[in-house]
Specification:
This protein has helices spanning 25-37, 60-73, 112-118, and strands at residues 2-5, 8-11, 20-22, 79-84, 89-94. It has one domain. It is built from 3 helices and 5 strands; from the N terminus they run βββααββα. This is Condensation domain-containing protein. It comes from Adineta steineri.
């Protein structure tokens, strides 16, 4: 949709609000690479970081609120690839899981062994 402002014509893009589409060729390549090269129970392209609160305290409610805000703003962080065995297509799906996932106390750890159990 073209918008004219002060004799300068610009293009305004509107969101389509599509939550499921066929995966791009780049997404297919990454998906197939992961299926061929790695064990199926390992999410090799997921990045995991752990942080330790050394001083002070941390509000789990505020942390959860921040995670939900960031996930709500950036759809790519809640996009997953799903392979349909019936028709052989790979689809990208944007979920709303960020609205319901909890951080519970049993997901905290006291030492490296407990951290490895969670991971």
């Amino acid at each position: 949709q073209a918008v004219s402002m002060n004799s300068i014509q610009t293009t305004q893009w509107d969101t389509l609000h599509i939550n499921e589409r066929i995966a791009s060729f780049a997404q297919e390549r990454i998906f197939l690479d992961q299926q061929v090269r790695f064990s199926s129970d390992i999410a090799i392209y997921n990045e995991l970081s752990t942080l330790q609160v050394v001083q002070g305290s941390l509000s789990l409610n505020r942390l959860l609120q921040v995670f939900r805000y960031v996930l709500n703003k950036h759809k790519i962080l809640r996009t997953s690839l799903i392979f349909n065995n019936n028709d052989g297509t790979l689809k990208q799906c944007i979920t709303d899981i960020h609205k319901t996932f909890p951080i519970t106390m049993n997901q905290t750890f006291e030492n490296d062994n407990e951290l490895q159990d969670i991971i």
